[in-house]
Amino acid sequence: MSALVHNYEPLHVVLSRGEGAWVHDTSGRRYLDLLAGYSALNFGHRHPALVAAVHTQLDRLTLTSRAFEHPLLEPFADALTRLTGTERFLPMNTGAEAVETAIKAARRWGYLVRGVPDGEATIVVAAGNFHGRTTTITSFSTDPDAHDHFGPYTPGFRVVPYDDIEAVRAAIDATTVAVLVEPVQGEAGVVVPTPGYLPALRALCDVTGTMLVLDEVQSGLGRTGTTLAAQLSDVRADLTCLGKALGGGILPVSGVVGRADVLDLLTPGTHGSTFGGNPLACAVGLAVVGLLEPGDLQERARTLGARLHDGLDELRRAGLLDAVRGVGLWAGVDVPDAWGVTGRAVCEAMAGRGVLAKETHGRTLRLAPPLTIRSEDLDHGIAILGESLESLRP
Ligand code: PMP
């Protein structure tokens, strides 16, 4: 027993080193990482360009707080907005903070521009959402564990079924300032909506004068085969939350990109963070943008993603999986219900064979390998998943 609070249930591997798609435990054993920090490690462990950028900055300056300026913050904002085709960037640290920032921006815009009385703004969100762990975000979670006696909750959210445009239409009224959804629901098990959903949301938001806020903390920055998942549907959000991979798996870096007329309403004193946009964060964030700008990694996510989904479909056809969902280099798979085998048991069987994945919701596994993974390593990972499932088939 240590002093650590037991608010997670990790697999019992103790990792001490990582490189690319591979990690080592403290005994020197090697594992292939198919989880990649839930998409925080899109570029693999310790990508040389990212490590070099952080090293260089570490020798210069690490923190100013936002009380003073430093030379990397504006270039980072300019580079990230160029990459994402947006106008403004407001830097934060964690994904949850980015979502909180978007909620505050939408409510402030609702009051100042739309004339929704202060305290009456509503935001439409989707069942099965995951946007973080703060009190306000927890208020509209539909996960019973996340919502287990943490009240009183923050009012102002209307939960409708995911991928149901009519439910959103029915939930929007004169108080509604935003619709906030994940373009692909990550924690829910990599749930991809029907192709027309996001365009229909965009059109509905346009007609009703409501902001479309997309949480791309997990889906963004290459994972789906495009820089943003919304680009798969040719949709442009008003505000987009980014996090995870923005820090290259090295540092917590997040923020909101989007419309200038909305984000510029967050004037001095109204919002901020001591660490948001710090020099180290900007150094790694700029290097992350540099990795994504050429588009090769997005292309890799498409081609390796097709390989991943082909491999998983084969396992499904062999009766080893109930369902395979996902897009790009990202998949959620369900262990057959009839087996009575947990996702955890599959992950343990995989770890025993040197491949790491992690279960969610009982019998679901999420796979999000680094976009830099070698194709032969990906094939190896899929083969080990198949072998592990086979070993547990009743
Ligand atoms: N939004 C989404 C879509 C996420 O997947 C997550 C993390 N899983 C978050 C927000 C929260 O990010 P963080 O844990 O950095 O607060």
Automatic annotation (TrEMBL):
EC number, UniProt record: 2.6.1.13
Task: Spell out the molecular function terms from Gene Ontology.
Answer: ornithine aminotransferase activity
Q: Which of UniProt's keywords are assigned here?
A: Aminotransferase, Pyridoxal phosphate, Transferase
Establish whether keyword Repeat is in the entry: no
Q: In which pathway does it act?
A: Amino-acid biosynthesis; L-proline biosynthesis; L-glutamate 5-semialdehyde from L-ornithine: step 1/1
Q: Which domain of life is it from?
A: Bacteria
Under which main EC class is this enzyme filed? transferase
Query: Which InterPro entries does this entry report, sorted A to Z?
Result: Aminotrans_3 (IPR005814), Aminotrans_3_PPA_site (IPR049704), Class-III_PLP-dep_AT (IPR050103), Orn_aminotrans (IPR010164), PyrdxlP-dep_Trfase (IPR015424), PyrdxlP-dep_Trfase_major (IPR015421), PyrdxlP-dep_Trfase_small (IPR015422)
Cofactor(s) required, per the database record: pyridoxal 5'-phosphate
What the record says about family reads:
Belongs to the class-III pyridoxal-phosphate-dependent aminotransferase family.
Protein's UniProt name? ornithine aminotransferase
Which organism does this record belong to?
Flavimobilis rhizosphaerae
